[in-house]
Amino acid sequence: MILFKYLGDKDVFQTVFAKLHAKRLVNETYISDYAEKCMISKMKQACSMEYTLRLERLCKDASISKDLNAEFKIYAESIAERVKLDFRAVVMTSASWPFKEKSTCGIPADLQHSAELFFAFYCGKHKDRTLTWFHDVSWGELAMDCTTTTYTLRASMFQMAVLLQFNSELNFTVQQLHESTGIAMDTLLMVLHSLLKFRLLVRVEERSGGTSTQAALRLEPDTLLCVNDQYCNKKVHVNINVPLKAEVQAQQESTNKSALECRRMCIQATIVRIMKARKSLKHEELVAEVLSQLSLRFQPDVLMIKAGIDVLLDKEYIERAQEEPDVYNYVALNSVPNHLTAKFLL
């Protein structure tokens, strides 16, 4: 927390922390509930209640999900539906969930029944809500027993969707996997490269004694793949659920874009709040006041503040004084629009 106090862009830190926090909750990789809540509490003390609102919602949603899964098991037993898998769902509200982008992927047939059963249970319990599956952060464990040793693989949803296809056929082309899994081709190629890197899958020509030239390392739609029945690892529990390069890059771009948009709205909301309280201010005084109030969250750019003032002038939240062009007057309104307040609170 000592370093946190010296961060200039606390809003960007909040966005990144929220995504990592959500992943820890979904992947169950956090040390303890106490450690997560303790960190959030310290950030609240350093900044404000609004700063940690989303993080606290995530913790609350994760806690509710534990009770929800217990209720789901009772529900499944009550309708004589035995869930063969250790199926667990983490239900997060859209207001707290920090990820917006999602990739397409068909739910594997082995998981379809459990997913549909949970969907029916949840929608029956909350008729006014809609569930959306986020496969990008979903994961599971697979037992690989095609070798002399049985391995437990911790895999992403995309990796599971690919590997489970080989329960029905020995070989698949890249195009066949694309059609059977419903994964976008660019995402599928990255998933296949990761499975080839872990040596869980191999090219059929390679297993037959073909050479691994640079050209052969490229995956084409007609490239034939199979499970590596000679797979060997010192560990019996293997974590292959690693972030894809494109996924990391997309998240970085999304974080930067989200932070920039949030700053714009935050600056506008701050200007409105200041002008509502002060009624009339010179340009330099308004800029200085905005800089002072937002310094705990981030260091706003003066040009961005000027742009925010121009937007509010166009929307007639404020107006220039007729006698003094560098003086702004607050235009009385019934209420501040919700989009300004809501964005600032988040």
UniProtKB/TrEMBL annotation:
Keyword Ubl conjugation appears in the UniProt entry: yes
Short name of one Pfam family: Cullin_Nedd8
Keywords: Isopeptide bond, Ubl conjugation
SUPFAM superfamilies: Cullin homology domain, Winged helix' DNA-binding domain
UniProt xrefs under InterPro entries: Cullin, Cullin-like_AB, Cullin_CS, Cullin_homology, Cullin_homology_sf, Cullin_N, Cullin_neddylation_domain, WH-like_DNA-bd_sf
Domain Cullin family profile, residue spans: 1-196
GO molecular function: ubiquitin protein ligase binding
UniProt similarity note: Belongs to the cullin family.
Protein name listed in UniProt: Cullin family profile domain-containing protein
